[in-house]
Specification:
It is a single chain. The chain is about 0% helix and about 50% strand. It is built from no helices and eleven strands. The strands form two sheets. Strands 2, 4, 5, 6, 9, 10 and 11 form a seven-stranded mixed beta sheet that branches. Strands 1-3-8-7 form a four-stranded antiparallel beta sheet, with no helix packed on it. It is globular and about 40 Å long. It starts with a strand and ends with a strand. About 30% of the residues are buried.
Length: about 120
């Protein structure tokens, strides 16, 4: 059974930093794609950053480019999202997700098969 377990959310003042973690259990395929999404109340789930295992290729949404960094540990079992220069508009529930390597729409929520439980990030002004 595949499980994604997140940690690291919390409350921070604007300009601060947080690091989210997502550990993958039970997924045995060698190549896959992982991503971070977020969803604020009343809004659609938004794709933030993607990483492809093996190559380490990354992709960022414009809203977080230059402030957020997606990475994995060497064993490719834990995904991270380093968030710097946080803004109040970054306040949301953050989710990690896992999907197959190939996709024509890698930022689309429907291209991911497994999701973490979510972790809340709150940024105060």
């Amino acid at each position: 059974q595949v499980q994604l377990v997140e940690s690291g959310g919390g409350s921070v003042q604007a300009g601060g930093s947080l690091r989210l973690s997502c550990t993958v259990f039970g997924y045995t395929y060698p190549s896959y794609r992982m991503a971070w999404f977020r969803q604020a109340p009343g809004k659609e789930r938004e794709g933030l950053a993607i990483i492809w295992t093996g190559t380490g290729t990354t992709y960022y949404a414009d809203s977080v480019k230059g402030r957020f960094t997606i990475s994995q540990d060497n064993a490719e079992t834990t995904l991270y999202l380093q968030m710097n220069s946080l803004k109040p508009e970054d306040t949301a529930m953050y989710y990690c997700a896992l999907g197959p390597w190939g996709s024509s729409r890698p930022m689309n929520v429907n291209e991911y098969n497994y999701w973490g439980q979510g972790t809340q990030v709150t940024v105060s002004s």
